UniProtKB/TrEMBL annotation:
It is found in: Cytoplasm. This is Acetylornithine aminotransferase. The keyword Metal-binding does not apply. PANTHER family: AMINOTRANSFERASE CLASS III, SUCCINYLORNITHINE TRANSAMINASE. It catalyses: N(2)-acetyl-L-ornithine + 2-oxoglutarate = N-acetyl-L-glutamate 5-semialdehyde + L-glutamate.
Amino acid sequence: MPVTRALFNEVMVPNYNPAAIIPVRGEGSRVWDQEGQEFVDFAGGIAVSCLGHCHPAMVNALTEQANKLWHLSNVMTNEPALRLAKKLTDATFAERVYFANSGAEANEAALKLARRWALDNFGEQKNQIIAFNKGFHGRTFFTVTVGGQEAYSDGFGPKPGAIEHVDYNDLASLEAVMSDQTCAVMIEPLQGEGGVVPADQAFLEGVRALCDKHNALLIFDEVQTGFGRTGSLYAYEQTGVTPDILATAKALGGGFPIGAMLTTAEIAEHLKVGTHGSTYGGNPLACAVSEAVMDVVNTPEVLEGVKAKEQLFRNALNAINEKHNVFTEVRGQGLLLGAALNENFKGKARDFLVASAEEGLMVLVAGTDVVRFTPSLIISEDDITEGMARFEKAVAKVVAAQQAS
C-alpha cells in the first residue's frame, strides 16, 4: 500500500491540512522526505525538537529505558519520573511537579489546581480566571476557552464559565476586571501563537502585583517559551517575576510527548489524592527521555548558545529585509522569533511558509501576519546560514509573485 498525502484524506479526520511532503528521516536540523529531498528545519516541530532530530542522548535514553520498563500507571511511581521531578524542582522556583502528556494537559492541571486552591481557601465565589486576548493554552475545552482566540473555542456548545479576557500588555484593562473574586491569571510571558509578542517588563511586574493584591495565583504558560527556548531554562527567570504555577511541555521531551505542571508545596496540597490524574502521565519512557534532554539543555553552553544563535537569526533576517522590504520588525526572544509582515504582505504569512518548503526549508507562521522560527536550540551556524539562504529565495519568490499580481 503506497503511503501518500492522498491517503491522509481517506483515513484521517480533516482537522489538519498537512503539507504535501511526508518526512521520513531526520538528523540534527535536517530532514528528508519520501523522495529524498532535504530540508533545513527552522520549525522544530513547533518549538518541540530542542535538540534537533535523533540526538544521541535522546536515542540512548529511550533505547535504554525501552529495554527496562515502559508503563506502570500512577498506581506506582518510577525512577525516571522521580529523578526528573528532582531536577526540575532543583532548577526552578517549584517544589512539586505533576506530570502529564502535553501542554494542554499541563495547563488543564494548572487551572484545576487554581480553582481547587481558591475553593479550599476562600470559598466557591472566588472562581474567576483571567487570561489574555490572542493567548493560546491548548485544545481541551477548558484551556481553549481560557485561550483568547474565539476561532478555536466557538462552536462546541456552552463554555466553562467565570473566564474573562483582557488585552495583553495592557495593565489597566486587567486591573479593571480583577477583584477578590479572581482566583488566577494565566499568561504567556511571550505570546507564541498570538504573533510572537513579548510581555513588557512593567506589565509582568504589574500583573504579579495585582495577583498579590487580590490573593490570586499567577500561572505562567511556558509550554512554548520554556526549556531553554529563550536562553534560560524558563523565561520567567529573565523577568524577575516568579509565578505560583508554571506549565511546561513541548521542548521538555524534545519530541517525546510529556508535559508538567510545576508549583509550590503549599499550593500543591490542594490536589489531594483522587482529585486529578493521568494514566500515561509521568511514564518511565517519557521521563527518561526528558531527563536526558534536560541534562543537555540546562547547561551554560547550550543556554548561552541560544542567545548567540538568536543574533545570527536576527542579522540574517535584517539583511533579507534590507534587500526585499517585507517585515516591519523581528520580535521575540532566544530562538522563538517572529518576523512581522508589513502592510504590503499582510495576511500572507502562509505564502512565505509554502515558498520556503519549495526551497527546502521548514518554517512556521503565528497567525496570518507573522513568519515564526523555532529551530533546534543547538542548530549549527552552517545550518542557520544555509537555511537563511533558502529563506531569502523564498522571500524573493513571494515578492516577485506580489509584484506580478
